[in-house]
Amino acid sequence: MNEEAVKKVILKEDEDYIINMGPQHPSTHGVLRLEVCLNGETVKHMTPHIGYIHRGMEKMAEFNTYKQLIHLTDRMDYLSAHINNEAVCLAVENALEVEVPERVQYIRAILDELSRVASHHLWWSAFGMDLGALTTFFYGMRDREKVLAIFEESFGSRLLHSFNTPGGLMHDVHPNFRKHTREFVKYFRKKLPDYKNLLTDNIIFHNRTKGIGVMDKEMAINYGITGPSGRGSGFSCDVRKVAPYGVYDKVVFREILYPEGDSFARYKVRVDEMQESLNILEQLVDDMPEEGGYTAKMKPVIKLPEGEYFQRVEAARGEFGVFIVSKGEKYPYRIKFRSPSFSNLFVLGPLAKGGIIADLVAICGSLDLVIPDIDR
Amino acid sequence: MNSVVRYFTDIYKGVTSLWTGMKVTGKYFISPGEIVTEQYPENRATLKMEDRFKGEVIMPHDENNQHKCTGCGICEVNCPNGSIEIITKKVPNEQGKMVRAIDKHIYHLSMCTFCELCIKTCPFDAITWGQDFEHAVFDRTRLTRVLNRPGSSLKKKEVKS
Ligand code: SF4
Ligand code: SF4
Predict the structure, then answer these.
(1) In chain A, what residues touch B52 (CB-CB under 8 Å)?
(2) Contact with chain B for residue A68, Cβ under 8 A
(3) Domain A17-375, CATH number (from 1.10.357.10, 3.40.190.10, 3.20.20.100, 1.10.645.10)
(4) pLDDT number for residue A8
């Protein structure tokens, strides 16, 4: 290496002021350490350090049967646990070529959208709080509680409901499921103007987010940014649109795209997505068949035929992929998860560079990272 | 000139946007509508969990201290975390033959991830969810439970008419 190249690699200099944000910093929402190299208040350079809650899930999954490893995927992106479950189930079902009842596909899609809304609730609450608007936290949590009550009624747990199983669902949804989902859609439509008045139109919030952390479309594609963060840069990456699974080709919905690429655009994508999810929910709840059972007939021991299988779904934070290599046994030979937050994290450094440290918090919040999803 | 106008419009916009936000919080302050906060633990007596709530795995016993577990060990095999240990013993049945029966159904609540596979796969419906959720203890060993009660026995199969 010549001297120029060495200089490029060594980003720190002796007189730099380095502070560690995290692992227990409230704005990183989990155990993530950001090593920030500062010049005054300006971020010169930022390195994320991950791995504090690495649990070796991919290795663990190799010793679990296909039914057993579902509960591991819950614990990656715990806010869209249901969507992660679905990815594994779809991969196994496609490999075995089993036909899942239509009713199951509808219920899964409804739960996907409910999870997405609940996840965006939490993000909205926490994002406001990161930027100093504590009130949003209470209002977001209040509405999220309604979704969690629906979950609790049907699956008995609020966050980590291992409700999917290859071939269908663990058991049938509660008889009141349809009614309560309708009620929630009605309730939340009334509350959406509050969200607008409280944060979206707030001048302080505009000043904190507009033009902060601008990521253009090319950068989003290069870093593999998916989900609302990618769509905030105009990158059309909604898996529900580009590679529909389940019943998503039967519902009418809009892919939310904002070309600006700043933190405010990412915010707008998520808020609009909540509204769009309500539209999807309305269509699905009306069309959901009453009859049809809740599971396809499956063998008690599932063995995938030898080969490689991949399935991707749109989780609340972006594209979640499962890659399974099977040697024809009841355990997967190798399983690889492509989690959205992992890719989304690494754009944080380039975006924060040159900004001030308070902007780093705003950008980190607007990317909506879930740390267990990064570490796995 | 332009900058002066902008200065005042900014002030105006700022004040109106703050006012809009304050109106939302003010409205809820005066008329909260539905109060969503629960007074736990004061409301313990009236607090009822959902029927399907996953609090812990329990084994229901009837009034004769009888349960349905045969000690087949299927739940133990299906648990992904090794939270269940089945210890069996041999007891004589009516014909005097020695058959397998459950001695101890050990359940480690601390290792359970509430995946429901044990309950789903039990062929005799011997275990189910309990609604208790106050599991905080000072000593981890107290989270290990023996689900079949002392002196309990296997319920006779009802003869279908
Ligand atoms: S609980 Fe059910 S599965 Fe487990 S040993 Fe008893 S009968 Fe068998
Ligand atoms: S719920 Fe799951 S983790 Fe808990 S004991 Fe049953 S099988 Fe094991």
Answers:
(1) 152-156, 174
(2) yes
(3) 1.10.645.10
(4) 55
